[in-house]
Structures are given as C-alpha cells and as structure tokens.
Amino acid sequence: RPAVPRVMAAVKAPGQDEGGIMQSDAPPMKPLWCCLITRTVQTRSEEAKSPKAQAAIDAELKGHQKRGTWDVSKVRELRDWMNDPTYDEVCVGRVFVILGCKNSEMPEEEWRYRARAVFQGNNIQTRTGRSVYEIFDDVSNTPASLVGARGAFAVALLKGLCATYRDAFQAFLQALFESAPGIANLVQIPRDWWPDEWFHDGDRTRPRYHQPACPLKYALPGHPKSGNIWETHTEGVLISLRWKRVEMWCGIFVHPDGSIMVLYVDDFMLVATWKRAWEHWNELGRHIEFSDPGA
Question: CA 264, 60, 231 angle in degrees (round to 5)?
C-alpha cells in the first residue's frame, strides 16, 4: 500500500487506531537543543569535498538541469543584457550553494548531506540602480499564523476530525518565475556549474564568457519575488479545487465539505475526515508535487 500522509500526533478522530501515529517512549539520545538541526558546511571546506557532500551538490545541479530552472541556451554577457534597449529594466543576481549536514550529532555513518541552490536576494544588480522592491509590485507573502493552525486543531477536536500534513517538494521551483513585461530577470551561476558549451571546444580552462548571465525561469528560493509567486501559484490551485480563503485569516482555506487547509509556505496541513483527507490529497497531488509518495 502506498505511503499515507503523516498524522499529527496531537489530533486524531475518535476511535481511530494508533497505528498511523508515531509514538515513542524512548528518551532522546542527545539534549533536544542538539537535535533536529542541520549543520551548515562551508562549501570550500575539506568536508565539502567528501564523496557524500559532492554527491549532494551534484544531485542538486542535476535537478536544476532537468527542470530548467535557468535557461542556459540564452546566455549572454552581462554587459550585453545591460545595454539591450528592448528591456526597460534588467535585474541580475548570483546563485550560490548552501550545503548542510543532517544527523551531525550522530555517528558519521548516519550523516546525510543536503545541498540547495539559492538566489542571493540581498545583492541584486539593476540597470537603473533602483531597488528590486521598487521594480516588483508585490514581493510579500502571508503564510498562516500559529494561531490559525491552532484554530484548525480546535475544530478537529470539536468535530472529531483528523489532521494530516505534507510538505511540497522544492516548493518555489514548482512555480514559473513571472514578472512585468520588459523586465529581464537573470542569474549568474557558479563557474563549476557552467555547461561545457560555455567553454571553447569544451576546454574548461578557456571560457567563452567573462560574466555570463542567463534568464531565470522558475521561482528560485532567495529571490524577493519567489515567495509571492509560490503563494499565488498554490492559492490558484486551491481555488480551482473549490477551496475558499477565510477572510482576515492568511493561509487558511475551507472546502464546501467542511475540510480546512492550513498553508505555511511549503507545509500543508489538512483537517478533514479520514476518507475526505485521502480524496483531497489525491486531488491536490495532481497539481502540486509533494515530498512523500502520498496516497
């Protein structure tokens, strides 16, 4: 049977068995403040050169290549982009890698490395010198509050519903990066990630470009606009599936069948009957990719 969405241990429907709820009486091996934290690894350190760390970085690159996060076929020198009169504004930022190690409090064989490419949103260069916050109309996003989530829990307890949750896989990257016409949104990727076509005869010691930049196609984490783009994308999906926003409660949606959805960036919490929870997750999974296999 396929994996089921995870069940929040705090809430369950009356009579529901405990099989789907993780419970453990074993004491933690380390103090709580030492656990569940990803340790940041410097990308130029010796640890980052280890096979496991390099495998994580390579996997991140291949994921972006497969998705087409940036369009390497439209690469140009940055100065050419800046001098192109067909654009009213040009925005460019650097892509860099954040490398983390999970389970670092455990023996080394338990370590798991995870790499993420992010956009350096605090250092965006524009042709006109304007701030990126002046260029984009809306860069804010409004996830659900803790009070809203607790309110959904209260409804679950009062009505005997169950609460399940799932997290979206590489959430922002599921949404196309869209901005006003006439604005070129560009990225400069790390030299190690340059494709062979950016070098003379594939010789990586002879680059064709000095400052190559290419268009950004998907909402890369770190860009000031990405959070708003992802929120607009997810809200559009939910509304198309007959969910309605709750007025004055950001990130809270209700369905005509009485189900409640709490949305916090890439975390989705669903309060519904067990039967309807499966139906809603299956329906939502056709539009949004989740980290777990789902129903």
Answer: 25
